[in-house]
TrEMBL record:
Region Disordered: start-end pairs: 98-119
CDD domains: RaiA
Pfam families: Ribosomal_S30AE (PF02482)
Protein known as: Ribosome-associated translation inhibitor RaiA
Gene3D superfamilies membership: Ribosome hibernation promotion factor-like (3.30.160.100)
């Protein structure tokens, strides 16, 4: 996918996680063709608790004139010890946010078209 940037912090590079991100990004961009680019940051910071290490996933989705930021950092969600689940959750949230923006833009364009004076 063109315009995809993936970074790993506090964790070694994983080809499997990178492939998972590429699949999720590909699905998102095939659904919304106006996406300019996606930046994904995957981290496994040390948490000072007894819950273990929880994944932190941040996404920036570039749209024309706007950037959508998504951060999935659930210190209270033990399921996010699974990096795949944390990535999937972040992309699910991105899908919802981009759809909301897309729907709002489509509605605005539809209103402008229907309100145009007839010739």
């Amino acid at each position: 996918m063109k315009g995809l940037e993936i970074s790993f912090r506090d964790i070694g590079h994983s080809d499997a996680i990178e492939q998972h991100i590429r699949e999720k990004a590909g699905k998102l961009t095939s659904t919304f063709d106006d996406i300019i680019g996606i930046r994904a940051v995957v981290a496994m910071p040390h948490n000072h608790s007894s819950k273990g290490k929880l994944a932190h996933v941040s996404l920036e989705v570039g749209l024309p004139g706007q950037t959508v930021a998504i951060t999935r950092d659930h210190h209270d969600n033990p399921e996010h010890e699974d990096m795949y689940l944390a990535v999937s959750d972040a992309f699910d949230k991105a899908q919802r946010k981009v759809k909301k923006i897309h729907d709002k833009r489509s509605d605005k364009n539809r209103r402008v078209t229907t309100m145009a004076p007839a010739e």
